[in-house]
Amino acid sequence: DVQLQASGGGLVQAGGSLRLSCAASGFTFDDYSIAWFRQAPGKEREGISCISSGDGSSYYADSVKGRFTISSDNAKNTVYLQMNSLKPPDTAVYYCAITMGVVAGIPSLLEYDYWGQGTLVTVSS
Description:
By secondary structure, the protein is mainly β. It has no helices and eleven strands. The chain has strands spanning 3-7, 10-13, 18-25, 33-39, 46-52, 58-60, 68-73, 78-83, 92-99, 114-115, 119-124. Strands 2, 4, 5, 6, 9, 10 and 11 form a seven-stranded mixed β-sheet that branches. It has a four-stranded antiparallel β-sheet with strand order 1-3-8-7, with no helix packed on it. The protein is globular, with a radius of gyration of 14 Å.
């Protein structure tokens, strides 16, 4: 079975940085995409970034573009989300997810099949 483990969340002041990690296991697919979603209090879960194994293409939502960077370490089966210049509106539970295939564009909830547990990011002012 496919398992994802998200970690790295915490409390940070506005302007600070955090790096989230998503450790993946239990799959042997050649082509896949891993995405980061977040869900702020009282809001719907939204896709913010993804990376595809086929060509390494990455995508970002406008709300995080220029501040967040997604990357992968294939040897460790881990995907990262480097978050810089954090703002209070970034406060949310962050989730990683994987789909067995390569998709393009900003990640959609409808495209992803397996989910990790969330890791909480709190940005104070």
